[in-house]
Amino acid sequence: MSLEVDNLLLESLKEVMDLTPNALGFFDRDYRLLYCNDIMASVLGKPKEQAIGQLQKDLLREAYNHSIGIKIDADNFDTWFDEVEKTQRSVEYNQFETDTNEGQYYNVTRMTLSNGMNVIVGANITELKKIQLTLTQAITDIEQLANTDELTGIYNRRYFIELSEKEIGRAKRYAHPLSLIVIDIDFFKAVNDSYGHHVGDTVLSYFCKQCNEQLRDSDTLCRVGGEEFAILLPHTQVNHAGDIAERIRLCIKACEIPYDDSGSTLSITLSLGVTQYKEGDINISDLLIRGDKALYQAKDSGRDQYVVQL
Ligand SMILES: Nc1nc2c(ncn2[C@@H]2O[C@H](COP(=O)(O)OP(=O)(O)OP(=O)(O)O)[C@@H](O)[C@H]2O)c(=O)[nH]1
């Protein structure tokens, strides 16, 4: 091919490079930028004319220092860059995803050609990434919805069963204690009958908020029935769970629950059943049966108390 054709081809290629939506950069064997298109220049955070001729390391350091172009999530630039260089030296080809401070996402392919030149191609995947992020968020929202009790905002029975199976598995494997408290509001029907169902709803929500404030982050309160609740307490011996049950009972008994705009309040009491996982238990039903037995004993003995059933 003649030099004239070569030059023509080169000019055409440069024009095509600026027409593609992807980032393209050509580096020499020392990673000095020989040529790039405008999109690669924007990824590097400076105009093409200023970027060409500079070393990859200097370009990336500037992007890092000024938070322009490629996002470099590192506490120390030099340590991060050492790793980049190590990869570039050890393999002829690698691929990774990156994003920019301007909100663009790229799937980057880096390759070393047989003549020693290094080519970096970044396929713009911003739209795809946005769809992916929306989908991930939607899945999280659906899961949240499926696991949450609409009225009180706490976890529902479905989540309780799922969590219990996991925690029982852990308790078995690591021989950790696991306790369960089941709670039933006393004479709740009377609350509904005297004040109306909407006040009953207010009381349920109020109870959940107060009860949650008594718990550690690792303890989980769930609504397992109408006015029945369960708390799963990993790493907790049953006598300690009994103390927690008593603390909740006293806290709720002391509450003056506001139920209308005029400042009127009402009070409730709780009956609680406490038990723990023991060898031979197969699933959460075994604990729930014992917890319910304890709860009924508490009801039979006059309510407003907790009973432990081993
Ligand atoms: N307001 C309201 N009430 C509910 C909800 N779910 C269940 N209930 C009511 O809770 C009451 C439970 O009553 P019972 O099981 O008879 O027991 P209780 O009156 O609490 O009496 P003891 O449990 O024996 O102390 C019923 O009246 C249900 O209608 C709810 O989401 N909102």
Task: Provide a descriptive summary of the structure in words.
Residues 176-310 form the GGDEF domain. Pfam families: GGDEF, PAS_4. Residues 9-54 form the PAS domain. Its cofactor is Mg(2+). This protein has 310 residues and is an alpha+beta fold. It folds into two domains: 3-130, PAS domain (Beta-Lactamase, 2-Layer Sandwich); 148-308, 2-Layer Sandwich (Alpha-Beta Plaits), CATH 3.30.70.270. Helices cover 49% and strands 22% of the residues. It has helices spanning 3-19, 38-44, 48-51, 56-66, 77-90, 126-147, 157-174, 188-195, 197-213, 238-253, 284-300; strands spanning 23-27, 33-36, 93-99, 105-112, 118-124, 155-156, 178-185, 220-223, 228-234, 257-258, 265-266, 270-276, 305-308. A hairpin with a 5-residue loop joins strand 3 (93-99) and strand 4 (105-112). It is elongated and about 105 Å long. The model has no long low-confidence stretch (mean pLDDT 96). The structure holds guanosine-5'-triphosphate (GTP). Residues 151, 184-190, 192, 197, 200-201, 204, 226-227, 299, 303 line the site of guanosine-5'-triphosphate (GTP).
In short:
The chain is an alpha+beta fold and 310 residues long. It has two domains: 3-130, Beta-Lactamase (2-Layer Sandwich); 148-308, Alpha-Beta Plaits, CATH 3.30.70. The chain has helices spanning 3-19, 38-44, 48-51, 56-66, 77-90, 126-147, 157-174, 188-195, 197-213, 238-253, 284-300, and strands spanning 23-27, 33-36, 93-99, 105-112, 118-124, 155-156, 178-185, 220-223, 228-234, 257-258, 265-266, 270-276, 305-308.
